[in-house]
Write a structure and sequence with these properties.
By secondary structure, this protein is α/β, with parallel strands linked by helices. The chain is 32% helix and 24% strand. Helix 5 packs parallel to helix 6.
């Protein structure tokens, strides 16, 4: 078995901002695993929020034994980008070797197109409003908050996209006082979900807050974390393959969330379609899917994720299907 891992910097069409900062490129690792002339591919994004880097992820991959499988990886590597990239490559390899698409290997029904959501990243108000107006016809808009005037941003985006469902993602950018002040604005603008309003170490304050809008954990659901610590403060969890450490473990996380009565969002990082394709399978079982990270890239793969009539689908030529399918 031959394993290859490279770091790749992928330029964005425009800056992508959240409360912790702005990026102009996606820093990813891409992997390939070849066995008996057959090659599977994967991609992941090291999560800087948790101290991950492309160099460290590649070093983790280089430390592995000559042979391993997806179950081995659960013990060989911690949850994170390195394990995700290899897990994806192994699923793709197994699909090609068996002549069976990944969705069948994973015990799924045939994937169906998913309603496309769109993320308005954190910039100045005029740019955010213009972006929302341009995408007002999508079914769901996620608004990144944590700027200087979030109340005005949400109000103006609601006017720009009156028919879209709205969720907001603060990426730990508020304190409890600001959140309390924002609740009437969020209710008035019909926001249906609030993602990670406070820093993860302040989750206990959320349990005491009377907010009529459901709350979704993202940064609080850290790589390798258990869900038991979340359900006192949140009713939803954002499951990302880069945090879970691959589709294999993300499936277990989704089942665990359901067992605890938590709703599920399947999210992504800013990445290419190769990283989105495995998450698209997981999103088949989610309440929300937030998988538009590939739309930010200036140059995606030759066979990228497809958006048609407001729905997202995964091309069979990209990942997870045998060559003959």
């Amino acid at each position: 078995m031959k394993v290859r891992a490279i770091a790749k910097s992928m330029r964005l069409i425009k800056p992508f901002g959240i409360s912790r900062g702005t990026k102009t490129s996606a820093e990813v690792i891409q992997t390939s695993i070849t066995r008996d002339g057959v090659t599977g591919f994967g991609e992941a994004v090291p999560y800087s929020r948790y101290g991950q880097t492309t160099a460290a992820s590649i070093a983790q991959i280089s430390s592995l034994p000559a042979e391993f499988n997806r179950q081995d990886l659960l013990g060989l590597l911690p949850a994170g980008a390195a394990r995700n990239a290899l897990d994806a490559a192994l699923w793709d390899l197994e699909s090609k070797e068996a002549g069976v698409p990944v969705w069948k290997l994973a015990g799924f029904q045939r994937p169906v197109p998913q309603a496309m959501g769109y993320t308005v990243s954190l910039r100045d108000i005029a740019e955010m409003t213009s972006d929302a107006k341009e995408h007002a016809n999508v079914s769901l808009i996620k608004v990144k908050l944590g700027g200087s005037d979030d109340a005005k941003v949400v109000a103006e985006i609601r006017q720009a996209a009156p028919n879209a469902r709205l969720i907001v993602d603060v990426n730990e950018g508020w304190d409890i006082s600001l959140f309390e002040k924002m609740i009437p604005v969020l209710v008035a603008t019909q926001v249906e979900l609030v993602e990670q309003p406070l820093p993860s170490n302040q989750d206990d304050q959320l349990a005491r807050l009377a907010c009529p809008i459901p709350l979704c954990a993202d940064e609080s659901f850290q790589p390798g974390a258990e869900l038991e610590s979340l359900d006192q403060s949140y009713s939803f969890v954002n499951i990302k393959l880069d945090k879970s450490g691959g589709l294999t473990s993300a499936l277990a996380d989704l089942n665990a969330a359901r067992a605890r009565g938590l709703g599920v969002m399947v999210g992504c990082m800013v990445s290419s379609s190769l990283a989105i394709a495995p998450a698209f399978l997981l999103a088949q079982q989610a309440d929300y899917s937030d998988l538009d990270g590939f739309l930010s890239l200036a140059n995606d793969h030759e066979n990228p994720m497809r958006v048609q009539d407001g729905f997202l689908n995964s091309p069979e030529e990209l990942w997870g299907y045998p060559a003959s399918s």
